[in-house]
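Troubleshooting: if your tokenizer reports a length mismatch, compare your output against this known-good record of 305 residues.
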Amino acid sequence: MPVKNYAAIDIGSNAVRLLIKSVSSSIQGKEDKFSKVLLLRVPLRLGFDVFEKKRISPEKEERMRRLMKAYRHLMKIYGVERYRACATSAMRDAENGKSIIKKIKKTTGINIEIIDGQEEAKMVYNNHMECREDRNGNYMYVDVGGGSTEVNFLVNGELVYSKSFNIGTVRILTGGVTEAAWQQMRDEIEENTRNYPVVNIIGSGGNINKLYRLIEKKDKKRKRIPVSSLQQIYDRLKILTPEARMDEYNLKPDRADVIVPASEIFLCLAEKLKSEYIYVPEIGLSDGIIDQLYAEDRGVEKLRS
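Known-good structure output:
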């Protein structure tokens, strides 16, 4: 059974992830099997530089260069045949983002692409390739990041609306989100879903995965949490300092501060969508990148056959 290893590097506003997956080609008539080989997450927190000062500091630039060098070596060790490195909101907004990418390419060999919000939203949607059970009904895929939130509206598996909003956890913490931006998101979501009485959410990102683990009242079989349960945990977290959240809920420092604004984004959208549940299938941009690489390879294989 042939096996091919793919890698995705997701350079976000809060953390930088390396995901490596192996894809086993199955016998004819059956789907290929995806297996997670490695997932690393390093909290570089680029957004705290960019959303306040518009630039990435020399210190974080050097840390990022070293991290890309380490990721390159890990991809070699695991025999990765294809990879893609994508930078999102923080790098899009950084005045020195493009120059940093050129330096990293020269010193590490890693080619980083700065993708726009629309492409990011579409790639998040692409990973429903591995979540086919979610195709029936009305769903809003919501990926909450440090600098932006990507939404994809699906009606019976068909993508009917996709958008990236500059509302993210780190951007909120640095004071970069105005009430006008919140209202624009509310209005646009309402406008594009007004003909659908109930739209449930499929959540993506590290924060909703952590919230799923923290919440006691949830449907483990279907991997979903009631919006009411999210509201309850949010009410408890909000009144605590980040240090108290770390102690009481065993959160890491780079999760303890962003988990509250992430909850606010999900609750805001749930209210507009009249959602009852948020499904948490543990998917994200990294999965979407690998799905895209896999689909491209499958397309080439079909052309050759």
